[in-house]
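Hypothesis: this fold can be encoded by more than one sequence.
Test: take the structure tokens below, design a sequence, compare later.
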């Protein structure tokens, strides 16, 4: 379901970009550096597990998901070899949306990927001199925020940040409007390694509790690059 929804969004974005392409656009060399920015949406899914602790056995706490808007900035280098284009890209994305959550008895537990930094390599093929189709793969570091709030008694209210690493694969298209300006749209799937977070419950019982989180994120975005 996650991949279908994100792929559909990427397809809509691609059609919007292609519809805006002027018929007279010409292609120049793709070799060089660029900077750019983009907007998109990401579908974050979370599997949350409570490992054995404090005399209790382990159990699957919840599986939940939600959509989040993301804004991004990026910089990269491309090298054109005949009709092939090879490149490296560094991208940073952020969101200010609320986290996804579930209710565990009286406890509201939430998580969110608030910032992402990705370093990826891409390989593309020029379908036309000005139209590039490409695939990408790379490493991703995500800053996640986790929360735990006692909605009934107000005994627990803890929030913490953690960094998760993972890998991402994607595909997209980029079109040169001019020698210096291009538009792009792409879809990326990121799988993060499982990591734990321990909440401090203070004077409550138990005084702390640990969860393990496994996240996957599918994002679709469109944007603009400035080449030089």
């Amino acid at each position: 379901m996650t991949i279908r929804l994100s792929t559909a969004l990427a397809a809509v974005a691609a059609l919007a970009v292609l519809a805006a392409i002027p018929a007279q656009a010409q292609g120049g060399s793709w070799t060089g550096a660029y900077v750019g920015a983009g907007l998109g949406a990401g579908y974050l899914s979370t599997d949350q597990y409570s490992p054995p602790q404090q005399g209790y056995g382990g159990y699957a706490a919840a599986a939940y998901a939600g959509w989040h808007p993301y804004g991004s900035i990026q910089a990269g280098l491309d090298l054109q070899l005949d009709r092939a284009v090879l490149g490296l890209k560094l991208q940073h994305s952020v969101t200010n949306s609320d986290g996804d959550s579930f209710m565990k008895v009286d406890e509201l537990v939430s998580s969110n990927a608030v910032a992402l930094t990705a370093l990826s390599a891409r390989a593309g093929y020029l379908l036309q001199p000005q139209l590039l189709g490409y695939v990408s793969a790379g490493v991703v570091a995500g800053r996640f925020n986790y929360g735990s709030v006692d909605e009934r008694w107000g005994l627990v209210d803890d929030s913490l940040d953690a960094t998760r690493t993972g890998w991402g694969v994607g595909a997209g298209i980029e079109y040169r409007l001019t020698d210096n300006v291009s538009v792009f749209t792409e879809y990326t799937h990121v799988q993060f390694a499982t990591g734990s977070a321990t909440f401090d419950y203070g004077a409550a019982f138990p005084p702390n509790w640990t969860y393990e989180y496994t996240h996957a994120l599918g994002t679709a975005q469109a944007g603009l690059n400035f080449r030089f």
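The domain at 2-227 is CATH 2.40.160.20 (Porin). The CA atoms of residues 45 and 182 lie 32 Å apart.
Hypothesis status: open.
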